Amino acid sequence: MLLPLLCTAALLTATAAPAAALPGPPVVRTEQGLVRGVTHGAYTTFDGLPYATPPTGPLRWQAPAPAAAWQGVRDATKPAQRCVQMPAPGTDAGAVVGSEDCLYLNVTVLATKPAGTKRPVLVWMHGGAFLGGSGGDYGAERLAVQGDAVVVTVNYRLGIFGFFGHAGLGAALPFGLADQQAALRWVRANAGRFGGDPGKVTLFGESAGALSICAHLTSPTAAGLFQRAVLQSGSCSTSFPRGALAPGTPGYEPFAPQADVWTAGAEAARQLGCTAGGGEEVLACLRGQSTERLGTAQLMQSFNRPAYGNGLLPVAPHEALASGRFHRVPVLLGTNRDEMRMFTGLSLAAFPIRTESDYRARLAEAFGPAASAVEARYPAARHASPALAWAAALTDRSFACTTLADGRAIAAHAPGVPLYAYEFSDADAPVLAGLPANPGFPYGAAHGFEMPFLFPSFPTQRPLTGDQSALSDRMIGYWTDFARTGDPNSAGAPRWPRLRPWSPLEPSVQSLAPGPGGIHPVDAYSAHTCSLWDRLAE
């Protein structure tokens, strides 16, 4: 069971206030019926569009069914409720947040129709540890306007509602991932109606959203649903060692064998008093439980790992990638330079790492016999504090080097597939709203800190500076150019080389930082001591 630290950053965010609407609301005919959106100057939004039937009552823990058609014009002026999720820090821990009726998406597009060529489509899968978040938390207007693109943000089932398993369900699909594929089918059917090109769909996401995209890259049921993939701070090989989040916490693998999810499901049924009869009777009892009874923190956290061993994920995604079983589409993947500082910073008040003795105790729990080898490469004296040394070691082990390893796997099996990598490296990036201040522990370029550069309304503790705004412009250009052509490069931008994972010491990971010379290729393999982590992973 994963601690809520993994989803706190997503839960701390809030949707920005929408821009003022102009008269003359636009109407588009979707496959299901007419929808009326809102125009905000240069861009138009269509929010709360259903892409599947509400998964409630007997449809709880069923694969998503297509949304029903409707008569008349449906209002699409505000996002739908978020899916049931972990309550935000500081709120009533017993209160249910969100609704089971939540399978909706939001479309943002330029207010003017495209001249001739259809626009590329970017489909965003939010992060939040498969426990929190919502598509409505992300204002996509800059990506749509500056990038001349159609942007879709998606809700999908979370926690026990999205990733529950039980022997009575058999090898059921991970419902949250099945929701995402249903949304992609909706995009394929409807993108053209919003000026988008259904043959140029880029799937992009951060953290759990990136893990989702890794799953779809290796999922046979996702074939043909997207043509490019962007993975931000999450890869098929991402994992945490024991004690990474706090002393005593177990190791974390983002995907679980089907049998493990069945075991958790049997335990949940026991806790809920649903044990009498056969599988159908148990499921009927479970489906009869209220949203409030199921949506507890304990039960939600018991089901935040998508299962493999089913039709959507036949094998673990990292195994599929390593054996070449993935879709041949252009891939852009990357991490932030100081990923684990966010997680470490969240727990420092409760679990301080003040001394070298504290640091060595954490290393011993995480790495066992290899702890001395790790300390030799990450001595506390080489960092401003033992806590920063700990965060650096975990950043490299869990994010930077696993992402580069996945790049090697893609290149080994599909050398002709365009492959690009980045490292977001702004040491003074704005701190996300709600994160605690820790004296002597700067967050740097921590997990999630690139989000305001792509979604400028994303809540932070201060606005972007002028140089950071210029970096935001460039990143939006890179992401949307990649969506348009499968190559992030365009005239006038610093050149972004293809990743050369077979030559790891060659600078081919694009560093993204503000200011003159801040964007340039770097040797991330050496900078993150990946030779050590590759050896320890053998």
What is the compact description of this entry?
The chain is of the alpha/beta class. 32% of the residues lie in helices and 14% in strands. It has an eleven-stranded mixed beta sheet with strand order 3-4-6-8-7-9-10-13-14-15-16, with helices on both faces.
Largest pleated sheet: 11 strands, mixed
Name the beta content range.
5-15%
Using only C-alpha atoms, the radius of gyration works out to 22 Å
By DSSP (H or I, 4+ residues per run), the number of helices equals 18
Tell me the structural class.
alpha/beta
End-to-end gap: 26 Å
- Largest beta sheet: strand ordering: 3-4-6-8-7-9-10-13-14-15-16
**Unreliable stretches:** 1-23
Q: Shape, please?
A: globular
Description:
The chain is α/β, with parallel strands linked by helices and 538 residues long. It has helices at residues 5-11, 141-147, 159-163, 175-190, 208-217, 258-271, 279-287, 291-294, 297-301, 317-322, 340-347, 356-367, 371-377, 386-413, 451-454, 466-485, 524-527, 530-537, and strands spanning 27-29, 34-36, 38-40, 43-50, 73-75, 104-110, 119-125, 150-154, 196-206, 228-232, 256-257, 307-308, 331-336, 419-424, 509-512, 520-522. An eleven-stranded mixed sheet has the order 3-4-6-8-7-9-10-13-14-15-16, sandwiched between helices. Helix 2 packs across helix 16 (466-485) and helix 12 (356-367) runs parallel beside helix 14 (386-413). Mean pLDDT is 93; it is low at 1-23.
Topology:
Layout: H1 5-11, E1 27-29, E2 34-36, E3 38-40, E4 43-50, E5 73-75, E6 104-110, E7 119-125, H2 141-147, E8 150-154, H3 159-163, H4 175-190, E9 196-206, H5 208-217, E10 228-232, E11 256-257, H6 258-271, H7 279-287, H8 291-294, H9 297-301, E12 307-308, H10 317-322, E13 331-336, H11 340-347, H12 356-367, H13 371-377, H14 386-413, E14 419-424, H15 451-454, H16 466-485, E15 509-512, E16 520-522, H17 524-527, H18 530-537
Helix pairs in contact: 2-16, 11-14, 12-13, 12-14
